[in-house]
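=== RUN LOG ===
request id: a7f3
mode: sequence -> structure
chains: 1
length: 100
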Amino acid sequence: VISSNIVTSFLSKNKENLSINKTLNYYKKYKNCILIIIRDELVKNNLNNKKESSLRNYGIGAQILRSLNIRKMILISKSKKNIIGLDGFGIKIVKQEFIK
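=== RESULT ===
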């Protein structure tokens, strides 16, 4: 559970708060949704390769989704993503939607 105070605090400190606000507004059309924020710089400090960093982020996100018992999902992003390996976590992307 995320307190709205925590989200407000995060948004006020984040350089990309406009992008996150757009995302949160987009989510309003759904009854249920999950937003996972992974602080990529923490992962990048341990990995030299950007591709490895992205794969690691997907793996971390997939583990979080699996622990929340998410099996099917709509992926919402700024651009088309070709994500492989989620089947290994029992997760299927049934649709992709794009935020403009």
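=== NOTES ===
Residues 50-67 form the longest helix (18 residues).
DSSP finds four helices and two strands in the chain.
=== END ===
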